[in-house]
Amino acid sequence: MKNTPLIVAHRGWHAVPPENSIPAFQAAVEAGFRWVECDVHAAVDGTPIILHDAELDRMTNTHGNVADFTVAELRQVKLKLPDGQLTSAYVPTLQEAVTAAGQQALWLVEVKPKNSPLLVEKVLKIFEPFPDRLALQSFDLPNMDAAWEMNPKLNGAVLVESAERLVEANERNYPAIHARHDLLTSDFVNSVHQRGGLVGAWTVNKLVDLRRIIGMGANAIITDFPDRLREMLERNN
C-alpha cells in the first residue's frame, strides 16, 4: 500500500443520526474519526449554515431556501432521516457544530454557493483561532481563489466531477484535487504527487471502490462508511 489515506466522514457519521447534523459530527469524533466533512450555505444574514441542499425540502420538515431563513428560524427546523422520520436535530450553524464537536474534530468544509467570497470569509473567520483544524473545498474556482487570496497557507482543495475539469485542475497546479472517485486513475494520482500535490476521492462507499482508491495512493477518502474504510485499512496494515 502506497500510503494510509485520511478517513473523512462524509457529512459526519450518519449511520444513525441525520447527515450534516451535530449528532452526526459528534458520533464521528466519538468513534475516532477526526476528519468530518460538511456543506455550508448562508442564512439570510450571511451566517454559515450546515446543509447540503440550498433548499430545506429534502432533509427537513420545512420548505424553502436556506438563504431566506434567519438562524433563529433554522433552529426550529427539524432534520429528517432517509426514511422521512423526523428527529430532534435542527439545522445548525457551522459555529455551533464546530463548538459541539469539540477540539478533536478536524473539518473539511465545502462551500456550496458559487462565487461567494463573503461566505468563504465567514468560514475562515470561524477557524481563525485554530486554522489547522480547517480544510476548505468547493466546486467553484472563484470561491477557492478567494480563499487562497485571503489565506495563502490555507489547506484547500478544488472539487472535480468531470474528466475535463480533472485535467484542468492538474494543469493549473492546484495544491489539492478532490475528485469523484470513478474519475481517478493511478497515473493521474502519480502525476499529482510528482508535482507535490494531494488527491482526495469522494464519495467512496463500496468495498471494491475503497480497495481501488487505497491501492492508487489517494491521500484522503471521503466516505459515508468510515467504519468500513477503517476496518479495511487495519486489515491491510
Question: What does this protein look like?
Answer:
The protein is α/β, with parallel strands linked by helices and 237 residues long. It has a single domain, classed as TIM Barrel, CATH 3.20.20.190. It has an 8-stranded parallel β-barrel with strand order 1-2-6-7-8-9-10-11, surrounded by 7 helices. A two-stranded antiparallel sheet has the order 4-5. Helix 1 runs parallel beside helix 3 and helix 8 crosses helix 9. The radius of gyration is 17 Å and the shape is globular. The model has no long low-confidence stretch (mean pLDDT 97).
List keywords for this structure.
alpha/beta, TIM Barrel, eight-stranded parallel beta barrel, 9 helices
Strand order of the largest sheet: 1-2-6-7-8-9-10-11
β-sheet strand percentage: 15-25%
Mean pLDDT: 97
At CATH level 3, the topology is TIM Barrel
Query: End-to-end span in angstroms?
Result: 9 Å
By DSSP, the count of extended strands is: 11
What is the level-2 CATH architecture name?
A: Alpha-Beta Barrel
CATH superfamily heading: Phosphatidylinositol (PI) phosphodiesterase
What Rg do the Cα atoms give? 17 Å
CATH class: Alpha Beta
Q: Which structural class should the secondary elements be placed in?
A: alpha/beta
Low-pLDDT regions:
none
Domains counted in the coordinates: how many?
1
Shape annotation: globular
- Give a quick account of the main beta sheet: strands, pairing sense, barrel closure: 8 strands, parallel, barrel
Classify the helix fraction into a percent range: 25-40%
Q: Strand-and-helix sequence, N→C?
A: EHEEHEEHEHEHEHEHEHEH
Output the number of helix runs.
9
